[in-house]
Amino acid sequence: MIQGSASIRIARPVATVYRFIAVDFYRNYPRWSPEVVALAPLTPGPWREGALARQVRVDQGRRTDTTFRASRLEPNRRMLIDGVSAAYHADYELQGEGEGATLLSFCFRLDRLDLFMLPFEKLIRAALAEGATRTARNLKGLIEAELPVSTALDPVAANPDARPRL
Known about the structure:
alpha+beta, Alpha-D-Glucose-1,6-Bisphosphate, Chain A, domain 4, seven-stranded antiparallel β-sheet, 7 strands
């Protein structure tokens, strides 16, 4: 097993982050993972637990075509994706941090390497670690740039007179 993981604090409420990642998955996934050059739902309807999708990715010049499943969707807590045509897992865990912030922990895991890839295990480990960090940063950047802070969670935005006086 080889994995890469990263955690990052996103200055938005957990429900907002979950909606961006899981509810609007088909629209947003290619945006936070620009290596995805094609994404197609294989199950009719919205992204939901058990739904299948197919993706074509180009990672560091290597093209892959895989089918994957939404194995677990726990609203405002977790989205787990499992590869169907390849042995991989992508796990997005969310934890509310108070004051409208969310801790996102992302982990990408390969269950096994093909025999011809074993000599490159160290490079693959480094690429997975770098990819996990990039994914977490991309999500943070997109979510914070596009989704405004709710005025209900920001007392200064709701009432400008509430600013502390210096």
